[in-house]
Each structure stands twice: as C-alpha cells, then as structure tokens.
Amino acid sequence: MDFKIEVNNSLVDVREGETLLTALRRQGIKVPTLCHMNRFSPTGACRLCVVEVEGKRDLITSCSYPVEKDMKVFTNTQRVIKARKLIVEMLLSNHPDDCLYCERNGNCELQWLADEMNVKERKFFARKNPYFPDGSSTSVFRDPAKCVLCSRCVRICEETQLVTAIDFISRGNQIRVNSAFNKGLNVSSCINCGQCIMVCPTGALTDISHIEKVQAAIDKKKKEVMFFVSPSVTASMAEHFGLKPDKDLGGLVCAALKKIGADKVFDLGLASDLNVEVEARLLAQRIKNGAKGPIFSSCCPGWIKYVEEFRPELIPSLAVSKSPQQIFGKLLKTWYTKQVKMLPDNIYSVAVMPCVGKKFEASREEMTHKGISEVDAVLTVRELMRMMRTNGIDVRNLEPMPFDEPFSGSSAAAWKLGYSGGKAEAIAMELFETLKTSARDTFKFSVPKNIAGRKESKVTIGKKTYGFAWVSGIERADSYINQLIAEGRDDIHYVEVMACLEGCAGGGGQPINRIPEKPRNRKKICQDMEKLNQWKTSSENPALEKLYRSIKNSPDQENPETYFHTNFQQREVLK
Amino acid sequence: MKAKSAEELKQFLVRQVLLNPRRIDLPQLEKELSYISRERVSKPVIYVGMGTCGRIAGADKTFSAIREYLDDHGMDVDLVEGGCVGLCSAEPVVDVQLPGKARISFGNVYHEQVQHLLDEIMNHNLPEANIIGQYGNDISQSWEGVQQVEEHPFFAGQKRVLLDNCGLIDPVSVEEYIARGGYWAFADTISKHTPASVCQIVEDSELAGRGGGGYPAGKKWTNALKTISDQKFLVCNAVESDPGSYMNRVIIESNPHRLIEAILIAAYAIGATKSFIFIRKEFTLAIERLEKAIENARQYGLMGHHIFDSGVNIDIIVKQGARAFVCGEETALNNSIEGKRAMPESKPPYPSEKGLWNKPTIVNNVETLFNVPLIIKNGAEWYKSIGNEKSKGTKLFTLSGKIKHCGTAEVEMGHSFRDIVWKIGGGIPNGKKFKAIVLGINSGNYIIEETLDTRVDFEELRNIGSSLGSGGFVVVDETICMVDLAKFFTNFFKKESCGKCIPCREGTARMLEIMEIATQRPGKNNNFQTLERFKGVMQLRGLASVIKDSSLCALGKSAPNAILNTLKNFKSEFDTHIFERKCPANVCRDLRVFLIDVEKCTGCTACYKKCPVDAIIGSARHPHFIVEDKCIGCGLCYDACKFNAVLIQ
Amino acid sequence: MQPNIESILEKFPNKQREDLIPLLQKIQDEFGFLSEEIITRVGAYLSISVNKIYGVATFYDNFRFGPVGRYHIRLCHGTACHVAGSSTLLQELEKQLKIKSGETDKEGLFSLEVVSCVGACGLAPLIEINGEYFTGLTLAKLNEVLDSKRAKDQTVYES
Q1: Interface predicted TM-score (ipTM) of this complex, two decimals
Q2: In a shared domain, residues C121 and C50
Q3: pLDDT tens digits for range B385-427
Q4: C54 and C117 both lie in a single domain
Q5: C139 touches B at CB < 8 Å
Q6: Cα-atom radius of gyration of chain A, to the nearest Å?
Q7: Percent of chain A with pLDDT over 90
Q8: Of the N and C termini of chain A, which has fewer Cβ atoms inside 10 Å?
C-alpha cells in the first residue's frame, strides 16, 4: 500500500492511482453504483456513488476520482444520502410502475436501490416518454421504457463484442438506446450473443421468451414434447443450487423436465460428441489437403453471425459442421422419427441451452428440413428455472432419472464444450485418435496459465505438431485473427472462438443474480464431471458408432458425411 | 509616398515592422503605418458596419446603395465592409473619413437615407442624420459642433481595450492590423520569449478566464506546458451558445486577426503545434471572416511551418459546431472535435493533462484569448493597472432586453452595474421600473434593485451568490414575469441537457414539469392537480439542491439556478402564482382572467368574433360576457377591443 | 445538377473519426438532410457503425433527417427575444402551422426550427425565413409575413 487517506474519520490504506471506489470496497464500505462495470473505465454517469470530500464544493463520484494524499472522505453524510435517494427517486419517476409484471421482479438492481435508499413514495409525477418495446429479434427483447440509460449494454456491445448494434440516440430527456433509424434489432448487426442481457440492471433487455409456447405445447398434448439438455446447463443448475458433481447430476435436470411435463428428455451430450467427431474429421481433411490457415469452430451462433456480417472473407475458413443443437434437431426430426415411426410434425423439440443466440440459430433457414423447423424452441437456463418455479419443482428434492434412449450417453468431451478452451482440447483429442500412428503415442495438451483471453497449445502427433488456439469475446477474437494474418502464421490449425467471455460458461442465457455466479465455477463443475465420465473422448462413445451405422443403412437417408454439415452466407445488415 | 505593390507591402510590414526590433524608434515608419492603418487617408473612405446585427438591420442594402451612388457619381472612394462598433440599436452604422478631416460616424443609415447623407457629407456638410460622433485627433480637423464618439453616453462609460479596433478596421485585412500594432506581440514572442516566460507573463497579469469560470489562464497554461507529451493542442472555445450573449461573435467578425494572434501566442506558450477554433456553424459571417483572415495571415507567413525561420510550427483549423449548448463545456467540446457525441467527462483527469485524444489540451474562451496579445505587447503591469484590486482587466457585456441602448460594451472591472444600466445602457425605456439583470443563463443570482451597486468583480459577485457568466446582460423590467422567466430557463436546460447523468437529465425535466403545473390553468374540481402542485413545489428546493450538488458538469450544476434565484429574490411573485393562481405581471397566459367592463362595452361583437373557443356570449349592442371556465387566456379579445372594455385581472 | 455524395467524401481522404461531423455538415449543406442511404454510405466510407453515426447526428440540433419546407422558419428564442415576447410568436406558429420545432408541415410548405440567440438582440423578437429576416415582430406582423409567403407560394404554383 502506498499511503493513507481518511474515510469516515478512520485511516485507510490505499494504492497510488486507484479510484476511491476501489479503496472503499476493499474496506468493505458499500457504495451504491449503477453505471459501473468491472473491467471498464468509469463514466461517472449515474452519480449514485457520490461521496463528500472535505474541501470540495460539490459531491464527487468515487468511481472516477483517484485517491489523493490527505483526502478526507465521508460516505454517508446526510447530504450524500439525500442526494443518492433523490437520484433513485428521479430514476423511478421516469420508470414504469409495473414491477409485478416485469421479468426481473425481485431480481432488479433498481428495486434493490430503491429498497436500500428507503424509497417510500412516488415523489414526482413525470410525463413519461412513449417508448414501444421491440420484439423483432429472435433472441433479445428490448423494452426501452425500463431502460435506466446506464450505458452498460452499449459499452459491452461496442467494446467487448465490436458490434455496436445499439447506441445512444438523441440527447437530454429524449435520450434512448436504440439502433439507427429506430429499426428493430432483427435488421441490425446484433449477433444475438445476449451479453447485453447479462449486464442490464433492469428488465429493459430480456430473453425472447419461449416459455409460453413450450408450455402451450405441453398443455395441448397434440405433439410429443421432447427436450434435449446441454451438459453446460446441468453445470449451471449445479452452480446455482449448490449441487455436488455426481455422475447422476444430469439425471436431476432430466427429472425436473419430466415433472414439468416433458414426454422425452434426451442428453445433448451425444450430439456434442457427434459435433466434435465431425469437426475433427473436417480438420483432418483440411490438414491432408494442405490448406493454409486454421479452421474455425462453428458451434457458437454469435461468432457465426459476426463472421457473416463483418468478416465474410473468413466464411471459407469456418468448419461446416452443424452445432450440437442443430445436429440433435435434425436427428430428432429425421432419423429418430423413422426409428419410432412418427411423423416429424408430431414432435415438438425443445433445446435447453446457456445461450440466447441458439434461439436465433434455431430459426435459421438452413436449419429447416422440408419446411419443418428442426428445433422448435430454445429455453435458456433462466427460462428453465422459471418454469421449474412455476411448476413448484425443487431440484434438490428430486430423484435423478435417466435420459431417454437412444440419446442418453455422452463422453467427457461433451462437458468440455461448456467452457472456453474445452472444445479445442476435445478436437485435439479426436485428431490425435485419428492421426496417431502408434499405440505408444501419448496425448499432451498443456493449457497456458496467466494469459487472459487467448491461449494456444501445441499437440505433437507422430512427427508433426499441430497448433490449437482458443479465444472468447469477439474483440479478442478479432484482434487475435488479425494478428495471425499479420504475422503470417501457419502453426495454428484450429481456432475455437466463443462470442461470450469464458465460453458457454459465461453465456447470454445464464442466470442473473444479485451475487453474480462465476463462470469459472461452472467450468470447474464441468471439469469435475469429465473426471467422472467413463468415456474420455467422443469416439469412445459407443452410441456414435451405432448411430452412424443406422444412418448409413436406412433407406432414402442422406449421405452421413454431409448429414451433419451446414453452410454460411454473407449477411447484409444495418451496420 | 509611392504606392506599394501587395508583395512590397508585405515585405515592408514583415521586415520593417514585425521582425524589426527597433520598429517604434523610427518616426518615418509611424507616418507610413498611419496611412496603412487608415488613421490618415489620402482619399475618402466610407465604412459600413457589417456585422450580423448590422446586416439584419439592413446594412447590406445600405452598402449596395452607397456603392451605386459612388458609381453613379464617378467618385474615387474606398468602400470598406467593416465590423461592428457595438451600438446595435444604431445599426446600420456608416462612418465617413474625408482626407484631413476626422472620421465621423452616423447611425441608423437605412438605404433610403444614403442619398441625402452622401450628398451632404461628401461636400463637407453635416447631413440631417443620427450623428453618433466623430473620432477627433491631433492629425485631422474636427467637425464643428459634433461630439466625440467617446462622449456618446453609450461609449462614455466604456474602457475599450479589446474593442479598440472593432468597427474601425477592415476585419480581414492583415495589413491594417499590423499597422495598428497587430502581430507585433507574436513576432516578439517567438523571437524573444521562451514558452515558460510567456506563461509567466500571463500568470503575472492575473488574467482570469472570461468564459464564466474565472480560472487563472496563466496557471492553466503552465500546467499544460509542464505535462510531457509528443503533441499538445490549443482549443479556442467560440461556441457561445448562451442565449443572450453574442460578444464573441462580434469580436470575431470585427477583429479576427487578434484572435488568430492570441491563439498563435497561446499555442507557442504551451508547446502546441495544432490548434482548433471551435465555432458555431450558425455564425456564418464570423466563420467567413475568420477563414479569410487565417488565409491572409498564412500568406504573410504568420502560421504554418518554421514561422519566420524560428523553427516554430503552428497551424490553426476551424471546426464548426453542430449546435449543442453543452459543447461549451471543455470536455464535451473535445469530444465533439473528436467526432463523438458531446458528452462531458468526469474530471480528473483534466484536459490540460488528458484532453483531445488523451493529449494535453488547453481550452480557452475567445474573450480570454483576446486579452493575450495586448498583455504580451504592453506588459503584465499594464494589464494589472486596469481593473480593481482583485479583478484585472475589462469585461465585455452584450446589453439587451428592456434597455435603451442595446449592443456590446466593454467596461473596466470594478464598474458598477447601476452605471452600466443607466449610463451606458441609457436606462429602461417607456418609463418602466427596473426589476433585474440576468447575467447569462448559468450565472447564479440575478442582480436586483438591492444589489445594483455591486461592481463588476469576481469576488463581489461571488459574495452575492452570483457570477460573471460569459457576458450576457439582459435587463428585465416590471412587465416581465420572473416565474415565467425561470420556466423559460429551466426549459432551455432541459432541451440542452446531454442526458448522460441522472440528476440533470431527469431533474431538469421534473423541475420543468413542476414549473408548468405551477403556471397551469386552474381547473375546477381538480384536487389531483392541486395536490401535484403543492407536492411539486415542496420538492422543488430539495430537487434543485441535489441537482446542483451531484450533476456531472457545469450545465447541470447551474440548471437549478433560475428557480433558486426566483425562490430567493422573487418569492412573493412565486407565491402569488402558486397560492393565488395569478400572475402579477400578466404574462403567464393560463393564469390571466379576462373580464368585460359592462360600462365600457358597446356590444360591437369584435371580441366575440375573435374568440377561438366561443367563450364570449352576448348579442349585438348589448354588453358581452366572458365565460371564465371556457376562457383559455389567449388575450385575442383584449387585442381586439377598441374601447378598452376587456380587463385583465 | 444533382448533388454527388462521392465528390464530398473525396474531400476527406484521411477517413478519420474526427472527420465525421464536418463530413455530415457538408453533406447536409448539399442534400438538405441526412437520409438513411447517406448515413449508410458514410458509415461504409469511414468504417464506423451506422448506429454510432446516427447516435452522433441525433445528438446535435443542426442535423435533419427529413426535408425542410419550401419556407424554413427559424425563430430566435434567446433570453432577450423571450423577454420581448417570442413565446407568443412560437405558440402562434405552432398553432397555425400545426407543427412543432424540428417538423415540416404536411404540404411541405413550412418547417419550423427554434434556435437560441441569433445575436440581434436589439431587434427582438425576430424570425428568419430562407435567409430573410423579419424583426420587431408582433402577432399581427407575423401573420402578415406568413400570409405573404403563402401567397408567394401560390403564384409559384400557378405560374
């Protein structure tokens, strides 16, 4: 520590150059904030973090003011509390009064602030601006009336994701966050990653809800409602409810869904294994053909949309494999229906994912088969938990149930897809299995420590060395790719790109709580689950071989090689 | 004296005047210079005051009329498009300078008066016109019976230091400017002074920022000079969006070279090689003249690379603002130059350390800069001799509102506000009673009857809870409603708020709503409205104090001033609006109650026909009656009645 | 001659962010307002998101996104003009033309813009229509001016 300052009449150690807020938080002094975001430079926009400093005429914002020698700070004088309270009341004056009907009821930063500031009456009768909600997007629902203009969504979309699909329009009381010309999000450059939802303090940004249509499908009983659950969702549930990793962990989620009314619940992990196998095969083929440059992963819909909109020149480098969700959807509505002799129309397929981009992916034109959508609905972890609450289900009191056949077994690799770096490792393992020449070859995959964002690992198979890289967050991905191109590197053969920071563990569909749940905890759970799995690599999963044979042998089936392939196209959007 | 070619003139002025260390020792130089500066003329010269306000008053037509006259009569006369002398109520202003005679100034010369004026004056006769005065001196013969310009009441109380050239010279001419002592300071700066010594001179002079802040300019410069960086910037803040002040525009239109010289000196002092003049796009004439003057200065080698072989590189770029009042705030201004939304930023870091593109940047107001060449030329001690103990120098004000002489005036610090209103301004017209002086939109308390003897001084104004502001000076009389004025200002802040911080964005809107409810039409059985009104008024003070305390920038911090002012100094007027639902000045439309005096009403039905809401009932030749419930207070009946039978209660 | 956007873009070869506002100003001077096509073209040229450009343009009062009327009225509403009665003029204009500041009427005849302080406070209250100033206005004089413009517009159509 560098020097001391006085806070509320006690001396406190501080570091040179840090902000007052950092110093106060280290002391455990709670100062309310709204526009503040970790890892981002402070803007001083909301003014909630104001404190009184002796010698300064006005109140100052602790988030942006650096510590100075001989500072005397007071964090809860009458003047400070009055200002903070009135600021919250001013915010509330321009906010709709429909907390009880809002998605974020009970889980909203504005509610917490109003409670902390002891707001007891509606002080101001304000003329509210008429804002209309925008439900045009497949993934993100915008309600500008609830926006508190904290700028978090704008900043994350611009600085972390390089997209800038939304920005501040107009000024003063008319200011709002929107796309240009007030067009809907569906024609904007939004990549549907949902990071904006994760940082929104109120109900201004939420999921496009699929709960209603899934519940309707269950209630109508006209179709068989079939769920498939991603392993990362199980990890999120475990993190949220404090469950210990156990080989039957997935079974609890299965049981919960059955209680909600699912006719069948399948393990998406099988499709994850398929995806890894298919992609590894594409990689091997590419290496054999001697193509230059790496192949990029394609299971993240946000990353794909980014490439299609902003970097179409990279489309030829994308792996043409369908994502696990879409593989599953296709299997369900074609191969499976033939196995059980059902009409595809009689199945209502629902994916449960940690991602809102998957809602977009499910709606892509390439993901339909003869006019029928392969995946009918996608529920995020948030939506699943909401449905569980409505149906009175407490996962801690359930007995695990096994996933339904024939989609019930998955390898450790399926869990790897739940976090950044896992896919790269899984692909590396598959490639190793494919290309190894002798049984004595050992697989070594070292994960570099202490490098944020982008990592590389080299794997030796036989006499050759192959480079695998992984990066999460579009801005980091973009600059890494530019670096690869600028340096003319040919030692990286596969790059895993995830739009969300930390991969699906930090996905746009994860729970939002007052005490934020950490992506790295979810990663740890995934890694623990890997250790408990009997099959370490995708190809060890016996169900895969059975599946391939079945697909090959059934009449009027497509070529299994291309069964799990898709294509990508350049998108013209408002950008 | 042989007439020089343009190139010869340029060589003369640069070599013999600017770069000549003994320039003032050579008496023959003075005479030659006096012809270039037009203190002496060899043939008649006519100047037409063509500032924006002159043009709006009709100076364009006057100019054309004079041109036509001169052409028709085949007269060899120099016709100069001049700047603004400052007396707007006398526009268009025409000055005539005949060889050997003092220059004489005429006011309100509309195009139809040109014939008579020129017929007389060109024959050395005084025409029948509004004679402002003559600029008499030792080297010319005076006009008999004509006062000196400085004896005119508008000019008598002024100390014209910054305005010395305004209205007298061709604004874009670099020759005239140099002949009158211009660019001498800059030439001396780069040859004799180091950047540190320039900063020291300005610091010693105690020059304080004239944009409203009053921060010592020299100290700010020294801060920037000390910060080590590969590039620094100087920005001239010519945004001037305060409704009611326009003196920056006047001085840029009338003497742009002084601003250019000031910027060159300031840029040198802080080590900046690039400087921006950020000026409102609406100031088309000012921009035109500024760009022309910059071009002319560039031709003379006064800016660019390796100026006068000194190794100093300075360039000036004009940037046009796209209109937002908040651009007047320095961090918002920097964002606007960078091509972003003009949102202010938290300070620290201050622009002098991290400004444009994170480089050290000094943002100075136009008027502040205008003082700089004079301080360098005449010395810090000279500057300190003007003004009073605490505040040095002069201040420009733009007088407007309910005052006889509108225009731009320059007064010495320490001048009393009373004298500005009654001596320079000529007092309140139509025999009305003085109410207040509004010193710019964000300057704290108004000057009221009780504080009229306050002097123009930073500290004295601070003591009465006011501040100098940028120089707006709007005089308000008894016919103005202070509550309505407060509502107007609050509306202005609401419109101009950038929207970044909650107190200003939401707070100004809420304050405006409260003010609107306070001045709204009283409706019957509207208990909800009454409750709102009282509740709102009770919140007003608290709301205002929090907005002042916690807003991000000066715009938000001064937004509640108008309301706080009114609550402090005009409480009774405010209370009458709230509790008695009446506007004492009869300005607030919704609170006006119209009655028809049955004694005076002749039943002519004029009011009945005019009423837009059919609130008047009555038949021809019978007294009419206004239904109060239907009346919207528009006052059309009042305007229509020729018998003064409609009364406002 | 049709204004050409490419010739304006050429004047800013550095394609820097700081060129954005001057570029938009020059374009609006030629085209009268900023349309969606224009903003999209500028975004592609400067490699800046269209949403960002729209955000910057809507911040400032000078930029328009729709055409102005044949007679564009600028009303000065500075302090001195307000004190001289410009609010009454504004109310009258809004009532008669049925538009608010920043809008154009249905026939495309008049558009209204409220500015603060033209700088001619001695001649308050005043309006400017297509470069022509009308000073010291009363309600009656204002109506005369509007009527004369309406009449002029009629003759233009009839001729």
Answers
A1: 0.92
A2: no
A3: 999 988 999 999 999 999 999 999 999 999 999 999 999 999 9
A4: no
A5: yes
A6: 25
A7: 71
A8: N
Beta bridge partners of A466: A459
- Taking CB atoms and an 8 Å limit, are A169 and C54 in contact across chains? yes
Distance CA B130, CA B109 (A): 8
Looking at chain C, which subunits does it touch, using at least 3 CB pairs closer than 8 Å as the criterion? A, B
Q: What is the DSSP letter of B142?
A: P
What CATH number did the domain enclosing A159 receive?
3.30.70.20
Q: Tell whether the model's pLDDT for residue B314 goes beyond 60.
A: yes
> How big is the CA angle at B289 (ends B284 and B291), to the nearest 5 degrees?
95
Question: In terms of residue numbers, what domain contains C97?
Answer: 71-158
Please, what is the end-to-end C-alpha distance for chain A in angstroms? 46
> Does A61 lie at the interface with B, CB-CB under 8 angstroms?
yes
Whether residue A572 lies inside any domain: the answer is no
CB contact (8 A) between residue B400 and residue C124: yes
Question: d(Cα B593, Cα A37) in Å, to the nearest integer?
Answer: 55
Of A42, A83, A94, the CB nearest to B506: A94
Q: Which residues contact B353 (CB under 8 A, 6 or more apart)?
A: B223, B224, B227, B360
For the domain made up of B394-477, the CATH class stated in words is alpha beta
Is there a domain that residue C105 lies in?
yes
Distance from CA of A174 to the nearest CA of C (A): 10
- Note whether B44 and B122 are within 8 A (CB): yes
Residues 326-345 of A with CB under 8 A from B: none
DSSP conformation class of A67: P
pLDDT in tens, C36-66: 999 999 999 999 999 999 999 999 999 999 9
| Nearest residue to B294 via CA among B275, B280, B311 | B275
What HEC string does A403-444 produce? CCCCCCCCCHHHHHCCCCCHHHHHHHHHHHHHHCCCCCCCCC
Q: In the listed set A45, A76, A107, which residue is the last one of a domain according to the structure?
A: A76
Q: How many CA atoms lie within 13 A of B409 on its CB side?
A: 31
The answer to whether residues B364 and B267 touch, using CB atoms and an 8 Å cutoff, is no
C37 and chain A in contact, CB less than 8 A: no
Contact predicate A254/A401, CB 8 Å = yes
Predicted TM-score of the model (pTM): 0.92
Residue C66 lies in a domain: no
